[in-house]
Amino acid sequence: MKRSDLVIPFSIVVHLLIINLSLSRFTGLNGPVYLWLFIDLAWLLPAFALNFYPTGRKEKFNDRFEKFFHQFLVFVLAYFTVLAFFRINFESGTQLKALCLLLVNLLIFRWFFYILRGVYRMEGGNSLSTVVIGKDGNLQKIQKVFAQPELGYRFRGFFNNTYSIDPNYRGRIEDCYDFILRENIDEIYCIASQLTEKELQKLIRLADNNLKKLKIIPDNKQIFTRTMNVELFETVPVINLRVSPLETEYAKMGKRVFDIIFSSLVIIGLLSWLTPLLALLIKLESPGPVFFKQLRHGHNKTPFWCYKFRSMGVNKDADSQMATKGDMRITKIGQFLRKTSIDELPQFFNVFLGDMSVVGPRPHMEAHTIQYQSSVDKYLVRHFAKPGITGLAQVKGFRGEILRESDIINRTRMDIFYLEKWSPLLDMKIIYSTVANAVKGEEKAY
Length: 446
Fold this sequence. Notes:
Elements: H1 7-27, H2 33-49, H3 65-85, H4 92-122, E1 128-133, H5 138-146, E2 153-159, E3 169-171, H6 176-182, E4 187-191, H7 197-209, E5 213-217, E6 229-233, E7 236-240, H8 249-285, E8 291-297, E9 303-309, H9 332-340, H10 347-353, E10 357-359, H11 366-375, E11 388-390, H12 392-395, H13 405-421, H14 424-440
C-alpha cells in the first residue's frame, strides 16, 4: 500500500488517548463525559488552527519542535480555561506535575511514531516512485535524500540528453514520457536549467493529465542555504536565502518570556546578595568601579553597553585587547571570577533590558567586530540574533582568546549553525552544558 490515509487519524486518536489517560491518572480528575469532550476539543481546535497534523515526508523527530511546543502551550492554556469554566477545583502543583508527565508521554509517542513510520517505509509502505529529468550538480544531492530508506522514496533513475555511464541513467529526455507512464512514477523532479521551455511544458501537461506530481528544481548557481524559503509575489517565486527559526513570532515571544523569567530569577535570587559581597572583594584588591562596561555589537550590529564584574585592574587596553593566558592585568579575585564565569553574571541585567538573550552568539567588542567582519567569511550573519550570555560556540570549546584564525572561523560557524538550527531544546542543552562546564572548570576560562 503506497498511501497511508490512516496516519493522521491514527495520530489524533493516540494523542487523545494519551491526553485523557495521563490527565485522569495523574490528576485524579473525574468529571462527566462532556468535560472530557471539551478537554479533547482543547487539543483538537488548536491543532487544526495551527495546521499541526500534516507531517512532511522528510520530517524527522527533531523537526518542527517549535510547532509541537506551540501546540502544547496553547492546549495547556485552553485546558485550564476549561477547568475554570466548569468550576473544577484543582491543586496547581498536581496539575503542573501531570502536564509535565503528559508532555513526556507525548514526546515518547512522537519518537515512537517516527521510528515506526521509518520501519513501515523501509518495508515498502507509503512509498513514492521518483525520477529526475536533467542532470547537474544538484542530482547527487537529491539522490542522497532518495537513498534514505526511512523517507520512502524509490528512485527509478534520471534522464538527460548527454549520455552517462551512471547505472541510474535511463536515456534521453524524450524517453522519459513513456517511462513515467509505464513505470507508474509518482513524482517527477525537473532540473530547470537542463530543459527547454517546450520540454517543460510537455512534462507539465503529462503530469496534469496523469495525476503525477511535478517538482521544479531551479538553477541555484550554488547559492542556496539550509535556511532558505520561497515566497510568492503574485506568480513569481522569490527565494529568501537566510531565514532563521528565531525569526518566527513564536520564537521571539517564547525566547523573550524565557529571558525575562530566567534573568529575574538570577537577579533576585543570586545577584541581590552576591553583588555586595563581590563589590567589597573587588574594591579591597584594586581601585576602580565594581562593574566593567564595554560597548559591544548586538542584534543587527546595534551597539550596547555590556556589563561584567571587573576582573582586571583599570587599564587603557581594556577595549582593544582580549584577556590572554597569564595576563598580568587580571586581579586575584578576577582570576576566580573568570575561571567560574561569575564575572559574566551582570549581563543578566542586559538580558532583562532586552539587549541580550540568555543563549545566543557571544557579543564581541567593537574593535574586534570591525576586524573580523572584513577577514572572516559570513562573520556578520551572527548578528541576525541577539547576543547571548552563553552560546553553542562556547560550550563546544570555542570561547576566550583567539589564538589562531581557525578559532574565530569555527566560532562563527557554530554561531551560524545555532541560528539555522535553533530550538527551545537546543537552548536547554546549551544552558545545561554551560553550568556543567562552569562547575568543572574550563581550560580557556582565563
